[in-house]
Amino acid sequence: MVILAGGILYVAWYATDEGWAERLRGTIPQAASFSQQVKPNIVFILIDDMGWRDVGFMGSTYYETPAIDQLAAQGVVFTNAYANAPNCAPTRASLMSGQYTPRHGIYTVAPSARGDTRDRKLLVEETETRLDLEVVTIAEALKTAGYATASVGKWHLGGPGYLPTDQGFDVNIAGNARGSPPSYYWPYERENNLGAVVQIPGLDEGGKEGEYLTDRLTDEALAWMEQHAETPFFLYMTHYAVHTPIQAKPQLAQKYHGKAVSNGQRDSDYAAMIESVDDSVSRIVNKLDEIGVADNTVVFFFSDNGGVGTITSMVPLRGMKGMLYDGGVREPMIVRWPGHTEPGSSVDTPVISVDFYPTILEMAGVDHSARIVDGLSIVPLLSAGVPARGEPGPSGRAAELTALADRPLFWHFPAYLEGNRNTDGPWRTTPVGAVRQGDYKLIEFFEDGSLELYDLGTDIGETNDLAEQMPGKVRELHNLIIGWRDAVGAYVPTVLNPAYDPTEGSTQTARFEPGAEPMCR
């Protein structure tokens, strides 16, 4: 199916073999041009391991996030926003590339084969750990349009030779191959189990006793923005927080001691870490006002995966970081674009992190039609007066809105992740894939081929498996995901592990039963 609207060609690439072929050749232009307008600054605030309900605007009464809530009130909240993976590195690779995980090969945080080998029924290939330099990142694309670019904080897509400065960023502050900080306190280092000192790069100088990592990264970002106020800029503000280690400012943690538990949210140190992130958002937004660029700056707020189930609660969602139930992949998301977004509005159309790439490039007027991009621009969803589902869209953009609403979202995670105290077996997840189209979501477990079907429109907690009741819908979605995997060359593990021994290890796959309350840290 081909849709032509507003000069933009869309292909329903999941519908036909011809569509797949066109998609793979990267021949589908997806970006409208804003090149005749003043190029907006882009500030992308990415939080690590923040759950869907870890902010006030999504309903938390335990965590205090007034600045983030104000940002939500000033922009558009996406209630069905997804990361394309349940842990850090693959989401970040897809955000930078606009591609699903099979394209770039970063499926998980290495290693792919975690845990006791006797518990792994299948052999799995090792994931890539570095984003290929041939990938044209958001930063590289924006550089062609005259943008200044900075990555401040976590990178997690490779070390020397694969750092942000090798991938289109003018500046890299504190980013390397590491997925978590050695410490949140200056000098941001610790001794590992081999006796070597592990540090965050670039922050050893200029610090002082008592300095806190989230504050320091914000300081660096503010200084950089001020230096580049006269040119279009892209700030990738990628906090290490709220990833472990759970280390807070003691004075902030104290205020949460004794505060009433809210649907399983009860960790005072984690709450204080979130408050530090909120303070960072406040300072960034205020700096945009101070340097006079707020009206021409798009601010994105997003998390890379679900929260950690032993620390926070995703209720009413099922699951947590490391799982393809919504608790592992549904994220809090805000976009504020003055003059384009309607303050206080919300969008329920499902979107996914591969969409940021074409969205940002459309905003900047950068053509990406020569590259393979799996996401769709969500700019049509940002306009004032975005309709509710089923209602006609704004003139000239109805076809794009239809394409966004009708397309499927995919996940592919051919790896093992160990369980923890609130899983009932050795795994948070075994190799798994999923697809969501409309309100229906199908999950496929590769070890035994089992399929689960949920209607997220009526069952947000994924408590009622409809697979036996709706075999036709199961076949439809299963055929869809099989076709997608074939088209993108997705690796599916099928070889049995000769070391698998169900008599020695636990063979009970952790599926995180609905209604289970996450434990405290």
What is the CA–CA distance across the termini? 50 Å
CATH topology: Alkaline Phosphatase, subunit A
Count of domains: 1
Average pLDDT, rounded to a whole number, is 89
* Share in helix: 10-25%
Report the sheet with the most strands, covering strand number, pairing sense and barrel closure: 8 strands, mixed
Q: Percent of residues in beta strands? A: 15-25%
Uncertain regions: pLDDT < 50 for 5+ in a row?
Answer: 1-36, 385-390, 507-521
Strand order of the largest sheet: 7-6-10-3-11-13-4-14
How many strand elements? 21
Class by helix and strand content? alpha/beta
The CATH superfamily appears as Alkaline Phosphatase, subunit A
As a whole number of angstroms, the C-alpha radius of gyration is: 22 Å
The CATH level-2 architecture is identified as 3-Layer(aba) Sandwich
| Overall 3D shape | globular
Look at the structure and give the CATH class.
Alpha Beta
Count of individual helical segments: 13
GO molecular function: arylsulfatase activity; metal ion binding
Region (Disordered): 502-521
Cofactor: Ca(2+)
Family: Belongs to the sulfatase family.
Give a structural overview.
There is one protein chain. The protein has 521 residues and is α/β, with parallel strands linked by helices. The chain has one domain: Alkaline Phosphatase, subunit A. Helix content is 24%, strand content 16%. The chain is built from 13 helices and 21 strands. An 8-stranded mixed sheet has the order 7-6-10-3-11-13-4-14. The protein has a 4-stranded antiparallel sheet with strand order 16-19-20-21, covered by helices on one side. A hairpin with an 8-residue loop joins strand 17 and strand 18. Helix 2 (66-74) crosses helix 8 (268-290) and helix 6 (213-227) runs parallel beside helix 8 (268-290). The longest helix is centred in the middle third of the chain and has 23 residues, at 268-290. The protein is globular. The termini are far apart. Mean pLDDT is 89; it is low at 1-36, 385-390 and 507-521. Its cofactor is Ca(2+). Residues 40-366 form the Sulfatase N-terminal domain. One of its GO terms (molecular function) is metal ion binding.
